[in-house]
Amino acid sequence: MQTNEATAKSWIMIAILGVIWGSSFMAVSIAIQGFGPLTVAAIRITIGAVMLYSLTRILGIALPVFSGREGRLTWLAALGFGFCSMALPFFLLSWGQQYVSSGFAGVTMAAVPLLVLPLAHFLVPGDQMTLPKAIGFIVGFAGVVVLIGLSAFDGGSSGGGLETLAKVACLGASVGYAFGGIITRLAPKVDPIAFAASATILGALMISPIAFSVEGIPEMPETMPLIAVIFLGVVPTAMANLLLVAVIRSAGPSFLSLVNYQVPIWSVIFGAVFLSEALPPSTFYALALILGGVGLSQIKTLRRLFQRN
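^ that's the sequence the OP posted. Answer follows.
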C-alpha cells in the first residue's frame, strides 16, 4: 500500500524537477533564435511524445482504451491536458519570450498554484476557498499586478505594446497550466505514464499542423538553437513528466507543490548567469508577493509536509 511519505529520494527528485523546469525558460530564449515560436512548441512536444510513447512500449503499458464512458472521458481529459498544459502554454511562452526575458517568464509560473485556487473552488468538489486561501489569493494577485506593471492598465508600454502583450501571454501560459492541473485532478484514474503519453501525443497532433502551415518547414538553424529545442523536448517535456509521476507516486501531489517555489528562482538564476539578463527590482517584489500568497494559501499543506518530514 502506498504511504505517500517523502523520503530523501523524493526531496532529491523535487529539487531536480525544479532545476529542470527552471532551465526550460533559458532554453526557449535560445531556441527562438533559430525557430518560430509555434515550431519550438511543436518540436518539443513531438520529441516528448515520441519518448513517452516509446517508454510505454518498453514498459508494456497500454494507452487508455477509447471504449466505454471512462475511456472516452480519459481521452477527453488527455486532450484538455495536452492543450492547456502543453500546446497553448508552450506557444505562449515561446512567443512571449521574444519580447521579455526568460527570468520574467519563469517568475510568471509562480502564479500557477495561485490561479488554481478559484478554479478548484468552482470545479473540484470539496476544494472550496477558505479564508487563508482567499487572503493568499489577494496577496498573490497584488504580486501579479506588480509583475505585469501598472502601466499595462493605463495603456502605457515600452516596446510598442508588444512587451506588455508578451507579459500577458506569459501569464496566459500560467492560466493554461492551472486549467491543466484541474483537468488532471478530475480525470479518471489511469496509469500516469499512459496518461502523460496520451496527452503529449494529442498535444503534438494539435500544434504541429498549425506550426507547419503558419511557419513552414523549418530550415536547419545554427547549433545552439537546435540543441536548445532538442533539450526542451527530451528534458523539460519528457524526462520531467517521468520525474513528476515518480514524485507523485512516492510522496503525493501535495509534496509536488513545493516545486512551485523553485522554478521562478532557477529561471532567474539561469537567465542571469547564461543569458546576462537583468531584471528590474519590481520583478523580485512581485515574486515575493506571489510566493507569499501561495504560501499563505497552502499553509496547512506546507505545515503537514514539514511536520511529517
